Amino acid sequence: MVFWRSPNYNAGRVVQAISVGLIIGFSFWDLGNSTSDLQQRILAIFLILILGIMLIVAAQPQFMMLRELFKRDYSSKFYSWFPFSLAMIVVELPYLVLAATLCVVCCYWSVGLDSTAGNGFYFWIAFVVFMFMVVAFGQLIASMSPNVGLAMLILPIFNTMLFLFSGVLAPPSSLPTFWRSWMYPLDPFHYFLEGVITDVLLPIQVSCNSRDLLTYNVPPGNTCGNYSAAFLSTATGYVVDPTDTVSCSYCQYSSGEEFYNTLEWSYDHRWRNFGIMWGYWAFNIFVGALFVYLFRKQSR
Predict the structure, then answer these.
(1) How far apart are CA 200 and CA 280, in angstroms?
(2) Residues contacting 165, CB < 8 A, separation 6+
(3) Which residue from 163, 14, 201 is spatially nearest to 100, judged by alpha carbons?
(4) In sequence order, what are the residues at sequence separation of 6 or more whose Cβ sits closer than 8 angstroms to the Cβ of residue 177?
(5) pLDDT for 224-257, tens place per residue?
(6) What is the pLDDT of residues 48-91, one digit of tens each?
(7) Residue 62: predicted pLDDT
(8) Is the pLDDT at 119 greater than 70, yes or no?
């Protein structure tokens, strides 16, 4: 009822979702299938995470305001901690589905991420669950913080780590052993990104443009195909004209699958990752409810 009577909060989130979707859509308009375009696709998907952070920032003050009202009612024996914790999660769900849907509609086709109906459905449903997960995470941080100022100080620390160790900015093989051994497997952003990026890139057959091609000369008496055969047997990509006897043009990748394999990701992990995101959502709810219970009484 509070959400219905105070529409500014959710109207603002709808505007944010549309704005982020349109900015990404027009910034990465109709990407092609070259290797540089594959990198742009990953960047577009990576930037969609910003909406989740924006919704966290919006949700925390709302949660903490309502928590103060709950504490007053709790001290008067009108309201228990469990219904409050459950209500704060359930009331967010339809608005988050709407925000995620609007953002996907605004950017999915305009960027050129569309391939099949099944892949599009996975992208949408994974993004919806990602929204559930991150807003519940924001409420968790708010539930353990005595005031909005402290929550806003804690949030960037967690967000920075989640972005850094998601596997996009640095592949897991390039991370120091300390971080690779525990932080990368624990990072929930990694599971969302692996699922949707492999979902988007798998159907793509790469066609390099001139700026993406690597050129080299062929020794006399050889063709590009013969000269490059040993290298191509262990490397990704293809030679544009294998019969050329003068100059070879090499494209580093021949498919989107070869590209995301460099990140050590697998398309087969999509639904596993989807289930893991539900697990993180449930964990955030449980721990957030625990802190609501621990701090249920008003400070004296």
Answers:
(1) 23
(2) 175, 179, 183, 184, 187, 190
(3) 14
(4) none
(5) 888 888 888 888 888 888 888 888 889 888 888 9
(6) 999 998 988 888 888 888 777 777 766 666 677 788 788 888 88
(7) 83
(8) yes
Q: Tokens in use for 228?
A: 């490059």
What is the rounded CA–CA span in Å between residue 231 and residue 241? 15
> Rounded to 5 degrees, what angle do the CA atoms 118, 162, 99 make?
50
Q: In what order do the strands lie in the sheet with 214-217?
A: 214-217, 247-251, 238-239
The CA distance from 96 to 132, in Å, is 7
| Among 132, 115, 105, residue whose Cα is nearest residue 41 | 115
% of the chain residues with pLDDT over 90: 36
Tell me the torsion sign for CA atoms 273, 277, 278, 280: positive
- Give the 3-state secondary structure of the chain: CHHHHCHHHHHHHHHHHHHHHHHHHHHCCCCCCCHHHHHHHHHHHHHCHHHHHHHHHHHHHHHHHHHHHHHHHHHCCCCCHHHHHHHHHHCCHHHHHHHHHHHHHHHHHHHCCCCCHHHHHHHHHHHHHHHHHHHHHHHHHHHCCCCHHHHHHHHHHHHHHHHHCCCCCCCHHHCCHHHHHHHHHHCHHHHHHHHHHHHHHCCCECCCCCCCCEEEECCCCCCHHHHHHHHHCCCCCEECCCCCCCEEEEECCCEHHHHHHCCCCCHHHHHHHHHHHHHHHHHHHHHHHHHHHHCCCCCC
> Residue 280 corresponds to which tokens in the numbers above?
């993180």
Contact in structure between 132 and 159 (CB atoms under 8 Å): no
Give the whole-number percent of the chain exceeding pLDDT 70.
94
CA triple 218-224-225, angle to 5 deg: 145
Structure tokens that stand for 188 in this block: 């929930």
Q: Are 196 and 120 in contact (CB under 8 A)?
A: no
Rounded Cα distance between 277 and 136, Å, is 12
